[in-house]
Amino acid sequence: xxxxxxxxxxxxxxxxxxxxxxxxxxxxxxxxxxxxxxxxxxxxxxxxxxxxxxxxxxxxxxxxxxxxxxxxxxxxxx
Length: 78
Fold this sequence. Notes:
Elements: H1 5-9, H2 15-19, H3 23-30, E1 38-47, E2 50-60
Antiparallel strand pairs: 1-2
């Protein structure tokens, strides 16, 4: 499920509107979600002659901000 959390967190929701949302969305809007919203485990990717990713894992929880930083060819878009 994709939700624009920036919009959701900057919007005021009344009770009828909240109760019409799926429980997962309510938890994100109310800031009570504790489960990861994105979780990648043990990702590997090889191109001819290059190991772009080797056993990479990433977990993102609601409210967290992450950035992927690296030189050109480091595998950021992979």
